[in-house]
Amino acid sequence: MLIIGIAGGTGSGKTTVVNAIISRLNVGDVAVLSQDAYYRDNSHLSPEERQKINFDHPDSVEFELLIDNVKRLRNGEQVHQPLYSYITCTRSTETVVIKPQKVIIIEGILCLQPAELRKMMDISIFVDCEADVRLSRVIRRDIIERGRDIIKVLQRYEETVRPSHLQFIEPTKRFADIIVPEGGNNTVAIDIITQYIKKHLHDTTHAI
Questions:
Q1: What is the model's pTM?
Q2: pLDDT (tens digit, 9 = 90+) per residue, 92-150?
Q3: Cα–Cα distance between 178 and 174 in angstroms, integer?
Q4: Cβ atoms of residues 108 and 14 within 8 Å
Q5: Which domains does the chain have, with CATH numbers?
Q6: CA count, 13 A, side-chain hemisphere, 205
Q7: Measured between alpha carbons, how far apart are the two ends of the chain, in Å?
Q8: What are the CA-CA distances from residue 176 to residues 65, 126, 140, 157 (Å)?
């Protein structure tokens, strides 16, 4: 099993990179664990308090569960990934079954932050992108997908997103084996990563 971590700031293009890698591999070879699914359940908080949560802070993520799930997949067990709603800031009672595959991709803004999680990764990738590009993507996403207005989006960016990026996310770049500038637009980097994965799968198959 090859475990890959893909981190980067909010709106950097991580999901695009993940999808580009998956599209170049055989169907069924890859399973994705999204850090976003492991945000802590906040159903005990009022709707007003939930809006104040800093989703760019490591404490907002239940890394203990994510790490446990990665260990179980590595041991050949299937896991139940939570379903999280950004609209309600709560977890659903339903889960998504993730089965062990040849390649496991862990994707999220903070996935290179916990040392224990990093140690389980065979490859760590940081998707880099200019702050103004990330901000424009965040504005579009939060307005269209999460029903927020422009004032609240900009206020959240100034108060939590940008400070947390500088404090918690950007520093994890030093842990990356590969830095991908311009996210999903960097087809050269994606091709190199994909070829590495294919070589690993080929070598593993022929070694059995």
A1: 0.88
A2: 889 999 999 999 999 999 999 999 999 999 999 999 988 888 888 878 777 766 667 77
A3: 10
A4: yes
A5: 2-190 (3.40.50.300)
A6: 9
A7: 13
A8: 23, 6, 28, 25
